[in-house]
Amino acid sequence: MRAPVTEWEKTPNTPESRPGLALRYGIAAIFAGGALIHTGLALFRPSVYAPFADESPFAWVRNAWRDVFMTQPRLWALLLAVGELLIAVLLVTRAVLGYVLVILFTLSLVLFGWGFLLWSGPFLAAVLLAMILERQPDAAARRRPA
Questions:
Q1: Angle between helices 95-108 and 117-135 in degrees, nearest 10
Q2: Is residue 133 within 8 Å of residue 23, measured between CB atoms?
Q3: Which DSSP state fits 49?
Q4: What stretches of 17-137 adopt beta strand conformation (E)?
Q5: What is the CB-side half-sphere exposure of residue 48 using CA atoms within 13 A?
Q6: Nearest to 101 by CA among 31, 33, 36
Q7: pLDDT in tens, 16-49
Q8: How far apart are CA 58 and CA 15, in angstroms?
Q9: Separation between Cα atoms, residue 129 and residue 131, nearest integer Å
């Protein structure tokens, strides 16, 4: 049984909507690439994950990383890869749900250290831009002076 596709997810194939659609597919490609990278790391270098949470400002994150993730880094990294691949697929097939998961995933990275704001801030700006351009394809044209 297929879930209904909302009007918002039906991006028209017009020249005005293509930048937003291209951004969405680019974001999906980033997540699919992340899934590939995590699969490779999980299979061949799982120890690389050990220091990931060291810079977290929260002791519970550092402790959970050490006590949960690092007890079975292969398993957890492969689950992370599956999650990222799922996000990529949802971005292509169910845009709204995909965008929500992208935003939550990206915001959760900040739990691992304030340095992730250097990635998360600009990345979330691109995500929001993609959402705006898809929702209102003529938004870019309206911003340009006549």
A1: 160
A2: yes
A3: G
A4: none
A5: 12
A6: 31
A7: 568 888 999 999 999 999 999 999 999 999 999 9
A8: 46
A9: 5
